[in-house]
Amino acid sequence: MNSKKKLIAGNWKMNGRLAANEALLKALIAEIGNTACDVAVAVPAPYLAQVQSLAAGSGIAVAAQDVSQHEAGAYTGEISAAMLKDFGVCYVLVGHSERRQYHSETDVAVAEKTQRALAAGITPIVCVGETLQEREAGQTETVVKRQLAAVIHLNGHCISEVVVAYEPVWAIGTGRTASPEQAQAVHAVLRAQLSAASEHADRIRLLYGGSMNAGNAAQLLAQPDIDGGLVGGASLKASDFLQIIAAAC
Ligand code: 13P
């Protein structure tokens, strides 16, 4: 069931500057020790080199927040999976709701990005989640299953190579967290869908994201199908992020 190593990934979103990044990473590295779980920080692209250098040897993996669905070429402003690989990126967020919402990312684009990441040897963290309107209309299951279905059949790759993050849109940045029971219920749906698609579904880590903080992390992470967290706001404060990591280990 839940014997796999948990993953706590911080998503800095569009926050940070050179000096602040350095201070945050140094504070994390000073305290993190030999944590029993995997830890990553998803940083804005201009800071990948800085974070790669500061985090080297610390056990904190570098993650990116997005990747192009294209391999290379005339796509101004885009960043390819191969470029991310040059900076030691281990994970990349794919299909975050802020990308789906503000950049009109479709399920197809999310599936293509997932494939690009896998082809480059980067683990995609595929984000799914319903809006408040969808939840209130009783569509949660339908929405997350549709979003996950789009990435399940990956040409040449096994779905067991991805990480999935359930991030209810209504819980992101709102301080309104899904209850452990609400989150577990959706995770169980996702796990069943993955099990039907792959005999290795048990290996897939399912993260919860949405107002996870030092106070609620332990209860969320104790759920049988919650294998880690994708943490936004609380990943910007070393002490909060460290408490979440401690709750996972
Ligand atoms: P918050 O933790 O700030 O709600 O953000 C969650 C999120 O979107 C992580 O990707």
Number of strands: 8
Strand order of the largest sheet: 1-2-3-4-5-6-7-8
CATH fold topology: TIM Barrel
Q: What class do helices, strands and sheet pairing give?
A: alpha/beta
Average of the residue pLDDT scores:
95
Instruction: Name the beta content range.
Output: 15-25%
Shape: globular
Kindly provide the radius of gyration, computed on alpha-carbon positions and rounded to a whole number of angstroms: 17 Å
- The CATH architecture designation is Alpha-Beta Barrel
Q: What is the helix tally?
A: 10
Explained architecture:
Helix content is 40%, strand content 16%. The chain is of the alpha/beta class and 249 residues long. It has one domain (7-248): Aldolase class I (TIM Barrel, Alpha-Beta Barrel), CATH 3.20.20. Helix 1 (18-32) runs parallel beside helix 2 (48-55), helix 1 runs parallel beside helix 10 (238-248) and helix 7 (140-152) runs parallel beside helix 8 (180-197). It starts with 6 loop residues before the first strand and ends with a helix. It binds 1,3-dihydroxyacetonephosphate (13P). 1,3-dihydroxyacetonephosphate is lined by residues 11, 96, 167, 172-173, 209-212, 230-234. 1,3-dihydroxyacetonephosphate (13P) binds at residues 11, 96, 167, 172-173, 209-212, 230-234.
